[in-house]
Amino acid sequence: xxxxxxxxxxxxxxxxxxxxxxxxxxxxxxxxxxxxxxxxxxxxxxxxxxxxxxxxxxxxxxxxxxxxxxxxxxxxxxxxxxxxxxxxxxxxxxxxxxxxxxxxxxxxxxxxxxxxxxxxxxxxxxxxxx
Length: 130
What we know:
By secondary structure, the protein is mostly helical. The chain has six helices and no strands.
C-alpha cells in the first residue's frame, strides 16, 4: 500500500498539471497573438505571453508525468506570483486571487517536495542509484 502522503501528492500533481495544461493550451488555441496583445495592454512585454503559455503547457505536461517536478513547481510559482501581482490582486480575494493563491500553495509544495508516486523523476533516480 502506498503511503497516504504520496497518494495525496499524486492527486494534487495531476490536478495542478491538468489546470496548467488547460490554461496553456487555451492560449495557443485562441491564438497566442491574442495573449500577446493582452499582455501588452496591461503594460507587460508581449513576448512574456509565449513564455507563460509555454511554461503552462510544457510545464503542465512535465508535471503530469512527474518530470522535473521541483523545477516546474518553481516555474509555476513565478507565473502565479506574476498573475497575482499584475492582475488578480486588484480584483480582490474572492473572484480574484483566491484561485491563484491555492494553485500557488500547491506549486510551492512541489517546489519543496517533488512527487514520487508514478513519477518519471522517481524512476530515473531509481535507475541512476542502481
